[in-house]
Design brief:
One of its GO terms (biological process) is protein maturation. Belongs to the HypD family. Keywords: Iron, Metal-binding. It holds the Pfam family HypD. This is Hydrogenase maturation factor. The structure is a single chain. By secondary structure, this protein is α/β, with parallel strands linked by helices. The protein has two domains: about 120 residues, HypD, alpha/beta domain 1 (Rossmann fold, 3-Layer(aba) Sandwich), CATH 3.40.50; about 160 residues, HypD, alpha/beta domain 2 (Rossmann fold). Helix content is about 40%, strand content about 20%. It has 17 helices and eleven strands. The strands form two sheets. The chain has a six-stranded mixed β-sheet, sandwiched between helices. The chain has a five-stranded parallel β-sheet with strand order 2-1-7-8-9. α1 packs parallel to α12, α5 runs antiparallel to α15 and α8 crosses α13. The longest helix has 17 residues. It starts with a helix and ends in a 5-residue tail after the last helix. Bound molecules: iron/sulfur cluster. Iron/sulfur cluster binds next to α16.
């Protein structure tokens, strides 16, 4: 029997919680639902909901955005990217071009796209030009890029890949001395692709309750109820509170596309540093499609920028759940959606943008 959000809230209210319990989510969609449904204020005061590393645009390293800007500005190419990426600022001197949007305004041929199919179409329509697809995203966004490559793309299309896996960031937090949370709500869409088993390490290695959730308040509250009960009863298991979509083993077709086209490598996360086994890279079969190899001088220059962050930007702390968005020193001051300093205020999946959209102004 399915329960309503109100019924789940009643069940949570009835739990004998005596200490503060911090629950982390790692999905921008989860954070959006939690914030927009007002779940933080509806839950008992003992429960703290922490937004974690759930925004792929926010973790895309500054040097990759810089590289995309420089390629678009200085090479006779068409650069295509998912829309959110266009407004992400890089840390350059005043007067220099600091985003793909500004590069576009300066004359670069940059086109926002919503899917890899659009990248293929643009390449077909511009056969005489190189099209570079700047593809930043987590597993759910990177899987269609893998499918696109596996199914064959026009000769003039290459990929500047900045794909990331979510679980290694959570593993890094859990391996640290102060993870900062007591239970995990795992991302439903990622589990749909990769399989819920990917999150089993949270329970087995770290003895922490975990539950996979969908995007409705009901599914999120069911997952929260599950992890709270596990904590109270001393049980530990990975619960699947999104069974209508998440299946054991995930999506084998998507996983075959990954295996065919990409390797998993250590990767830099914006402001965080290198996280082992957390990045997708085009494999040996697809080197001819790799824009990093096609334009090596840009790769060399941009790599030297690793670790760059705009002054005052606390995005890395927000991404890791160390502070809430409005605890950033410049939230709502120097940094607003109209004039973003960090990507967390740009992307629809960024915690700062979500909190701002819900009316949090300070
Ligand atoms: Fe980054 Fe702006 Fe959010 Fe601060 S307010 S964490 S600079 S996006």
């Amino acid at each position: 029997m399915k329960l309503s959000a109100k019924e789940w809230l009643d069940k949570i209210q009835a739990l004998p919680l005596e200490r503060k319990i911090k629950i982390m989510n790692v999905c921008g969609g989860h954070e959006r639902s939690i914030t927009m449904a007002g779940l933080r204020s509806a839950l008992p005061k003992h429960i703290e909901l922490i937004p974690g590393p759930g925004c792929p645009v926010c973790v895309c390293p500054e040097e990759d955005v810089y590289q995309a800007i420089q390629l678009a500005l200085h090479e006779p190419i068409i650069l295509v990217a998912f829309g959110d990426m266009l407004r992400v600022p890089v840390n350059v001197a005043k007067g220099e071009i600091r985003s793909l949007d500004e590069a576009k305004a300066a004359g670069a041929d940059i086109r926002p796209i919503a899917s890899p199919a659009e990248a293929v179409q643009i390449a077909r329509e511009n056969a005489g030009k190189t099209v570079v697809f700047f593809a930043a995203g987590f597993e759910t966004t990177t899987a269609p890029v893998a499918a696109m490559l596996a199914e064959g793309v026009p000769e003039n299309l290459s990929v500047l890949l900045s794909g990331r896996l979510t679980w290694p960031a959570v593993a890094m937090l859990l391996d640290s001395e102060l993870p900062g949370f007591d239970a995990l709500v795992a991302p439903g869409h990622v589990a749909t692709v990769m399989g819920p088993e990917e999150w089993q390490f949270v329970v087995e290695k770290h003895k922490m309750p975990a539950a996979v959730a969908g995007f409705s308040p009901e599914s999120l509250l069911a997952a929260m109820y599950s992890v709270l009960r596990q904590l109270l009863e001393g049980e530990r298991f990975l619960d699947n509170c999104y069974p209508e979509v998440v299946r054991t083993g995930g999506n084998p077709v998507a996983q075959r596309f990954f295996a065919h086209t990409m390797d998993i490598v250590d990767a830099n996360w914006r402001g965080v540093g290198v996280i082992p086994h957390s990045g997708f890279e085009l494999n040996a079969l697809f080197q001819a499609r790799n824009a990093r190899l096609q334009f090596p001088s840009y790769e060399d220059v941009s790599r030297k920028r690793a670790g760059q962050m705009p002054p005052g930007c606390d995005c890395a702390k927000v991404v890791l759940g160390k502070i809430y968005p409005n605890q950033c020193r410049i939230y709502g001051k120097a940094c607003t959606p109209r004039s973003p300093v960090g990507p967390c205020m740009v992307s629809d999946e960024g915690a700062c943008r979500i909190w701002w959209s819900s009316g949090v102004r300070e």
